[in-house]
Amino acid sequence: MTRGARLTVDDVSKHYGASVALDSVSLSIDPGSYVVILGPSGSGKTTLLSLLGGFTQPTSGRILVDDGDVTHLPPARRPTTTVFQDYALFPHMTVGQNIGFGLTMHKIRGDERSEKIERMLGVVGLPGIEDRAVTSLSGGQQQRVALARALVIEPRVLLLDEPLGALDLKLRRQMQDELGEIQRRVGTTFVHVTHDQEEAMSLADVVVVLRDGRIEDQGSPESLYLQPATRFSATFMGDSNLIDGRVVRTTDETVEVETSLGNLTVPGRASEGAEVTLAIRPEHLRADRGGDIVLGEGRITGRHFIGMHQRCRIQMGDRELILNAPTKPLLPEGATVVVTAHPDDFVVLI
Amino acid sequence: MRRIGTLLRTTYVLVVFGFIFLPVVVLIVFSFQDGAVSVPPLRGLSLRWYGELFADGRMMAALRNSVLVAVVSAIICTVLGFIAAYGLARYRPRGAAALRALLIAPLGVSYLVIGLGLSLGFSELGIGRSLMLVIIGHVVINLPLAFAILLSQMNEDQEQIERAARDLGAGEFHVITKVTVPMLLPGILAAFLLSFTLSWDEFVIALLLTRFDVTLPVEIWSALRTGLNPKTNAAGTIVFVLSVSLLFVTYWISRRRIGGQRR
Amino acid sequence: MTSHEKSTRKGWALSGPALLWTSLFFLAPMGFVVAVSFWRRVGGTLDRTLTLDNYRTIFEDDVFTTALRSSLEVVLITVVASLLVAYPFAYILAYRVPARWQRPLLILAVLPFWTSYVVRSYSWLLVLAKNGVINQAMMTSGLISSPITLANTRLATVIGFVHFFTMLVSLTIYASLTQIPESYRKAARDLGASPVATFLRVTLPLSMPGVVVGAFLTFVLAIGDFITPQILGGGNELLLPQAIMLQVQRRGDFPLAAALSVLLLVVVGAVYAVFARRLSLERR
Known about the structure:
Chain A is of the alpha+beta class. Chain A has helices at residues 45-53, 95-105, 110-123, 139-151, 169-186, 197-203, 221-226, 231-236; strands spanning 7-16, 19-29, 34-38, 60-65, 68-69, 80-83, 157-161, 189-194, 206-211, 214-219, 241-250, 254-259, 262-267, 275-280, 285-286, 293-305, 310-316, 319-325, 336-341, 347-349. The radius of gyration of chain A is 24 Å and the shape is elongated.
């Protein structure tokens, strides 16, 4: 199989009349990586994918595949292929004819063509169904055939538009794992668009968070989760407790922030006097004295048993914190607890 | 390149529109001809032929006959079509497919053959040609359409609503008059108006089944024998304008209906 | 009585009046036409002994075999020409015109549909006549020096037909085209197909239902139409419906007219049988 290509998006904007779908987006994607573009609807993620695939022209900026400028190439002449959200399998063709369509268009015929089709059906785990009608396939099977059809012409970059959106939850999680495996096997650069953050976390080498046509945050799933760059990405990817405050003192490595929960000294950089937000994940708060920072006493006003943890709402003065505690010991509703945390688990958002 | 493509496409669309509208425009323009022939050159505009048309007793009688035939046949089509569609949609009787095929069958047969069959049949029974027979014939050709339109408008949601009405104590008669008919009113009107338009335009059956009292298309046909003249244009224009107005009413109603169903 | 039997009864009872009407005024007359086609006209009366004489006449008399052949020719030309005119029109409308203009344009395009048969054909006569719009326009512009014969020819009949059926076929093809998701065409282009290949391999095959339905409707309606060939074609060429009318109105030979009608029904039935599979596939 061909190796994946480096994909570079250089200061790309897309305007539709007065509205701005993408605003100066720049992005560099390593060869052979699995990139997930994550964002709520209207964030511009589908527009970005459409620009990469060549179905839309940017208002300004350039798109490069390796060192080649493809900005003005039509879809047919780009080393990219797209897996469409509705799969777009041709209903009047068999599975084999669908997968072979791109090969025929690239003048690959005869034995070579049938071998490639056969091999690709093997890769997506559907060997021997060349002669089936695509209309007789289940949703999951159609998804794989669409994948095979796009991969068989050996694109340098594969674009996937909400590829799992039409599947039910269980199938989605299963296909999610398979997608990752297929990508590792073929080595093509995958660019996958979704609004499902769990999908993004489990598949991506790199997640790009898009909001209102701008890149909000990017990085590995771990760094994005543990070190979100903005309030939006801190709350869009899982829950966060956000504590507003003002920086009252700084050292080389720490800041002391005045908050409604007292002065908290945490690692990070900010200028003295700045208004900042401290973010901390619910699972990093403790309902005992085990943490180095004491946030104070609070009353448990609500508790849900989730299975792997118990999720508590804790009233601390005039504000509420979400705390995920281990399932033992059970925390009774109405009880008063001391909430603590480790300084390292706070993220300073400017 | 792109410009040329757009230019070619625009030209093609305009040519097709020209082709489609040519005869209609010629018809309407020369109905205002200030002269005796309905071909170029246009000698000036005048309403004189409309005046003559309205003064023509035979034409006016034919117009009245056409409206009568269209109204009566459209009412019969709508009523019969409605209850048949209701029976089929709500009771799903065994043999529904055959029933449907049978009721729709006349659509596949030429008006000429239907007219011939009725004409032969009635003369065999000793029944003379009359507007009554034209009404019968027009119901035969339009009933399938009215039936199909109404059937397509009936769905299972409405059935639930009717069930709710029964559950609240309404008898069968009240269910139909107070729930079903109001609910389906747009479809019923559309079926009626389409039947009306097609009946009032129909020629062959009317020709074969009438003798002295004729409908407007038949009268226009006989006027044609005396050659092209602007009075015929005026009559044709009136037929066209009335049909198009009815069409717009139908479209407006059905669009409201579809819009209402989707959301 | 089970509830299904009960509802079957009610269903049929409610369909009863429509069924009765269709039986009395459609099925029975059609049956009667078939019966009459096996009788014979003797002088002014009907001889009711069954005979195949009429059918023999049809197939032995050149007038009728020619009428059948002409009818088939004219109608096939009409079907092909209507599809050729309507397809690009529907295609441009469906894919190249902004969505909000499509419906108004489509409605505008089928407006003349609602002129009656007679009036529509009469209007074409005004256009095609010796002193009609086309001849006068061409003479004024110096294209021709003396009027050419357009009216009362097969060409005139075909023009009249194509005019009517272009509107009809545009509708069915447009409906088919707009049902094809845009992503299919995008996918084809993405996989390397040229615009022509995309059309031939994806769009055209997927729009075939509309083409087939349009062609079928055109065939059925055109082959049974009396007015267009009568007004525009004139008496120069006799088509099947004109042959039937001639027997009815001039000759008073109803058995022969009935036999010709049966022939017409058989032709339509045969075409339906050929198309039936594709038509029912379409419905699914």
